[in-house]
């Protein structure tokens, strides 16, 4: 049986969640840029999953705050996660190219923002936080 469209977004978000954590845990070769990229992707896919669950369309974007604003039109409590959305947005593209690198402190902040945003959206979708 095929999953609901929003469940596919959540499955993809969970994959990015795990990848972000794995990238941070590398002792010999930590991948802070990758951790931040996957943290952003996790947040993006959770927000898109929430919108999809509520049958709200969205344009192709990596701007988490734009997606958060759309979510807030359904549930005003999404205004509470503005800072997390803004914090994660730059990691969609910037860290994927030369010239931008992330240090351990920035990566830890991104991971924390991802965890908080994930927990918040999962609660609004009625999903347990694993």
Q: How would you concisely characterize the structure shown here?
A:
The chain has 130 residues and is mainly α. It has helices spanning 5-25, 32-53, 64-72, 82-88, 104-124.
Give the arrangement of secondary structure elements.
Blueprint: H1 5-25, H2 32-53, H3 64-72, H4 82-88, H5 104-124
Helix pairs in contact: 1-2, 1-5, 2-3, 2-5, 3-4, 4-5
Tell me what you see in this structure.
By secondary structure, the protein is mainly α. The chain has a single domain (5-124), classed as Four Helix Bundle (Hemerythrin (Met), subunit A) (Up-down Bundle), CATH 1.20.120.330. The chain is built from five helices and no strands. It has helices at 5-25, 32-53, 64-72, 82-88, 104-124. The chain is globular, with a radius of gyration of 14 Å. The mean pLDDT is 95.
Helix content: 55-70%
The CATH architecture can be named as: Up-down Bundle
> What number of structural domains do the residues give?
1
Total strands: 0
Q: What gyration radius follows from the Cα positions, in whole Å?
A: 14 Å
Number of helices: 5
Average residue-wise pLDDT: 95
Main sheet characteristics: none
Strand and helix order:
HHHHH
Shape: globular
Per DSSP, what share of the residues sits in E-state strands of 2 or more residues? under 5%
Question: What is the CATH topology assignment?
Answer: Four Helix Bundle (Hemerythrin (Met), subunit A)
CATH superfamily: Nucleotidyltransferases  domain 2
User: Under the CATH scheme, which class?
Assistant: Mainly Alpha
- The structure class reads mainly alpha
């Amino acid at each position: 049986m095929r999953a609901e469209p929003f469940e596919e977004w959540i499955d993809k978000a969970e994959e990015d969640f795990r990848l972000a954590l794995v990238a941070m845990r590398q002792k010999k070769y930590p991948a802070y840029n990758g951790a931040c990229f996957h943290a952003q992707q996790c947040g993006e896919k959770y927000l898109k999953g929430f919108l999809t669950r509520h049958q709200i369309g969205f344009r192709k974007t990596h701007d988490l705050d734009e997606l958060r604003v759309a979510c807030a039109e359904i549930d005003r409590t999404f205004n509470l996660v503005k800072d997390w959305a803004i914090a994660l947005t730059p990691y969609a593209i910037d860290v994927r190219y030369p010239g931008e690198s992330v240090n351990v402190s920035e990566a830890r902040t991104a991971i924390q923002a991802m965890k908080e945003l994930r927990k918040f959206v999962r609660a609004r979708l009625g999903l347990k936080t694993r």
